[in-house]
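Subject: Type 1 glutamine amidotransferase domain-containing protein

B.,
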Amino acid sequence: MSKKVAVVMTDMVEDSEYSEPAKALKEAGHQLTIIEKEKGKTIKGKKGEVSVTADASIDDVKPSDFDALLIPGGFSPDILRADDRFVSFVKSFMDDKKPVFAICHGPQLLITAETLNGRDATGYKSIQVDLKNAGANFHDEEVVVCQNQLVTSRTPDDLPAFNRESLKLLQ
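Prediction pasted inline below.
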């Protein structure tokens, strides 16, 4: 059954951490909506490999419109977590126990939303201390699935496992 997946991202997203999960999700029949501050904005990846147009503004969507959430890494999550609208949006998915897929620096949004206390998670090396300080049970593993809801991974090298576990949660 096709699910609606919200993707929150902005410029400086890690190219493959958007493109590979997006490809896997679309091939499985799921519908993605790219959400940025401004609808129609062209979002550029930090390596210049990805250029994608935002489908919607954060002001025009609500978590109840979606079944799951994807947070690609790179510098994008750090930029977005300074915006309370994105923090609230992400927090709603965690509070409602909807599937959330966050890779690399993606968990930074979950840290700011204060949703990781007591949760199992992983992330990029530079945010490991932040994850622990946010109360997460940090695991240095390619993919961590917590409470059949949250999927986290560390780097682009972990994308096969990240995509596999993310797709499992949407079955």
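The chain has a mean pLDDT of 98.

T.
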